[in-house]
Each structure stands twice: as structure tokens, then as C-alpha cells.
Amino acid sequence: MMSHIKRNLAFTLLSALLFTQSTSLVFAHADHCGIKETTLGDTMKHIKSELRAYNKGFKADDKAEMQEHINELIMLSGKAKVLLPVVIENINGEHSEASSELTAQQKQQYGQYQQQITEMTNTFKKIQASSDSDEISSLLETVNQQKKQGHKSFRQNCKS
Ligand code: HEM
């Protein structure tokens, strides 16, 4: 009798464990819009947090903080520029970061990707050079638009 209860209990606990594990896997997947984790994804997350830190410094009119985070943003967008988005890899189902292994169509698409990243870098550089807060606000809005545009063209299954 006792061993029967124990077995049932063990079974219930095991099911609960498996259920929790499988749901957390589903959530992890949804968090990333169905895209596998990549160095570019990590770089993008880093851009997001640096941008938030920059905005905080901007609101507090803390010039040192602003310089620190805008420098980081320029460095990160340079890093993003040499990485390959998943949507480009997916054309052939290959995973390669080497542009020499791309098809002609992929090369063209990658060129457009790099162009858009460069535009974002240029906006960051203008922000870095500016000390006019109205101008900085409007440049930050430009970055937002560039992000939307970049994601629309190159980020799979994601909205913003
Ligand atoms: C302020 C500017 C930007 C921010 C804050 C930002 C933020 C993000 C975030 C949070 C992700 C999801 C990362 C993940 O969960 O794995 C992402 C992904 C992505 N973003 Fe951005 N992004 C910005 C600009 C851009 C621009 C300008 C482009 C393209 C020209 C771009 C292309 C991509 C791509 C392709 C992915 C998918 C990652 C992959 O393919 O491996 N992003 N971005």
C-alpha cells in the first residue's frame, strides 16, 4: 500500500517537473521570437541596454554618462556590422559568418543590412558630437526609426 502511494507521488512529481521544463522551454523560445540565440542577438540586446543607459544620462544631463554610453553604442554598432543576421543564413539553411560563402543574392542583402547599420552608426556619431538637447532628442527618434526599419527588413518574425 505504502509503496503504491510512494510510486504515485514520484510519478506526480516527475510529471510536474517535466511539465515545468517544457513550458519554460516554450517561453524561452517565445522570448526570442522563434530565432535562435546569436552573437548578433546578444549585441542587439547590449545596444538596447546601452541606449537605455544613455537616455538615463541624457535626462539627468550627466555629460560623462552620456559620453560613456554613446561611445559604447558606436563600438557595438561596429560589431553588429560584421555579423550575419539569421534571415540571411536561412536562405541556404547554412550557418556561416563568412561573406565569401554567400550567394550573390545573399551578398546583396547583406550589403543592404550593412548600409542600414552604418546609418545607425552615423546617427550615433551625430549624437556624440552634439551638445544641443533638442537635436539629441530628434536624433534619438531617428535611431528608433532606424531600429524599426532594420528589424522590419532583417529580423525574422518580430514586430518592433
Ligand atoms: C536602437 C537600435 C536597435 C536596438 C535597440 C535593437 C534591439 C534588438 C533586440 C533586443 C533584438 C533581439 C535579440 C534577441 O533576443 O536575440 C534584435 C535583433 C535583431 N536586430 Fe536589432 N536593434 C536595433 C537596431 C537594428 C538595426 C538598425 C538592424 C539592421 C539594420 C537590426 C537588425 C537586427 C537583426 C537582424 C536581429 C535578429 C538577430 C539575428 O538575426 O541573429 N537591429 N535587435
Note down, in words, how this protein is organized.
With 160 residues, the protein is mostly helical. The protein has 2 domains: 1-31; 36-154, Four Helix Bundle (Hemerythrin (Met), subunit A) (Up-down Bundle), CATH 1.20.120. The protein is 76% helix and 0% strand. α2 (39-59) runs antiparallel to α3, α3 (63-81) packs antiparallel against α5 (104-129) and α5 (104-129) runs antiparallel to α6 (133-154). Residues 17-32 have low confidence and may be disordered. Bound molecules: protoporphyrin IX containing FE. Residues 32, 35, 37-38, 40-41, 44-45, 47-48, 51, 85-86, 113, 116-117, 120, 143, 146-147, 150-151, 154-155 line the site of protoporphyrin IX containing FE.
In short:
The protein has 160 residues and is an all-alpha fold. The chain contains six helices and no strands. The chain has two domains: 1-31; 36-154, Up-down Bundle (Four Helix Bundle (Hemerythrin (Met), subunit A)), CATH 1.20.120.
